[in-house]
Amino acid sequence: MGVKERLVIFRRWLSRRLKITHLLLILLLWIAGKPAPALVTLGPPQKVVTINPKMGVHTRLTDEVEEWKIKRTLEMVREMGASWIVEYFPWAYYEPKKGRFKWNHADMVVNHAVNQGLTVIGRLGFVPQWARPKDTTFLYLDEDHYEDFGDYVYAFVKHFRGRVDYIIIWNEPNISLEWGYRPVDPEGYTELLKVAYRRAKEANPEVKVLAGALASTLAPPGDPWGMNDLEFLRRMYEAGAKDYFDILAVHSYGWKFPPDDPPAPDKVNFRRVELLRQIMEEYNDAHKSIIITEGGWNDHPRWTKAVRPAQRIAYTIRAYEIALKEWDWCEAVVMWAFRYPWATHTYQDYYTFVAVDFTPKPIYLEVQKYAHGQLETVAYP
Amino acid sequence: MLTASLRRWLTPKRAAVLAMALVLLSGILYWVLHRSPDEAWLEVLKRGALIVCLDPSYPPFEYEDEATGKLTGFDVELAYAIGDYLGLGIEIATVGFDGLYDALKARRCDVVISAIPYDPLLTQDVAYSVAYFDAGVFIVVREEDDSIGGVEDLRGKTVAVEWGSTGDVEARRLQNRLGDITIKPYQSPEEALQAVKSGEADAALADAISAYQFMGREGGVKTVGDPVVSSPYVAAVNIKGRALLAKVDEALLHFRKTGYLYDLAEKYFGVRPEHLWP
Q: Per the CB < 8 Å rule, is B164 touching A303?
């Protein structure tokens, strides 16, 4: 081998070595530059201290990425004195491919919630792409895929057994938007409920299945956008829903009315839930309870359906009090919504108890005082 | 001779730098000559009218006059004044408050003038004008009281607030910072301001609109100092509407200078505030 050839071989060897060294150096720099993951631990198990164990809030942790924010949110819920949370567990997020479940984020949320001493109600819905036709919304589910949804319900209930023992089947099925922009269908929803109930009980006979989560609406007969909730519930019973749920979930917003405003079929107010209760009694289903899984008042300064901040505080506390003192059939009142992960820049921001940066709003502090028995009287403006 | 010295001077390194500079210069020239004109402004000029989006449910800024059925208010008059200043007609498009930005995005209107507060988180989507009103939280005291001029003077005082309002939030914050503040919550801003007037409280923390309305209607109180929290009302245009924004700004700055904004405030609040924009 001549000197020239040796030189060529040496150059090749050096070039390879340099490439490897460069790669190693880049890898090292990447590792060194990467911040260490924040250490967030569950911490010691906590208990909710409250004079009203029926208090709850709807959290919005589905899209909250950072664990410390999830933990802080749930700590603040507990510190406010609320025992219940409703959280959304979208099917599309946790079963992106048929039969492949990814529970990491849901586990994180549930573990922190349980550790804070909170009772979690899981709201199930949101159809993955693989379970619906193209060009349909995430809320479109046809009968051919009811069993697929049932499989998700089964997997969810089984995975979270002992941690999430309350589940809501779908959300506001009496609104066309929530039914994939199709005409609403109480009989179709009842069929979905039957599948979900059967699969849930197969996974855990102790799990409580909540049906309905009906939106309060005065939609007239034939309205393409929705169906009156009272009518929808009656038709659910007629379709045989009675044996396929344990608790009725109800949405109960007060809009401009105070919580004591009496209910009427032609009025949407907080006590409209009493009319739904009457229908349960009509169908000999009074042994079951109701949970208000969404509700409350809004204090946006510009929204025509909003009240003043002082009214919102007083109405919210009174609503919790009504559930405790007057409604033995109501297990919990869950107010919309504790905190958003980011500002929506709409009236929705004025439903929250805590700002995006975790600053407690006065409503949070006043409800906290109430829950800890420190609020002597509440005036009702 | 010149060529020879140029050749000597033009080393390969210098030639490369020169070439790069030429490329950069031609790029800038191309951008200046070919940048897209402000289509929004061209369309306004072609139309001869400015389309203004507003939500007429917020007196005294924009509302329907019950007697005439016509839209009126601070913002409505301001919109027409901007039109006059720019030599343009005004067309009002009424949109719900939550749809105002979408309407702008969808080009249903050229500008939003609807008591919208400046939002730093939206500046990627819309361009804001200079402020024309500050709706933030102010300290309100009795007219004859000169002992309170700022937040530090609230130490040891009783402060009235509307329960749950932004004033309440700020009062609680100040209480944490200054310690010695007694907060008295009331059910409405009017009651809180009345408490100041009657001597039940030393001061109130109230939003500018409630304060000015009370001052105009009842009198006996005044705002003092800078706002505790500023909430500037601004006009908004499409993010690409550079020329249009410049024209709106020009008009608003002119109105600041001439005192027209104070005149509008006096007309709709019955009082001439000291501090109208931040």
A: no
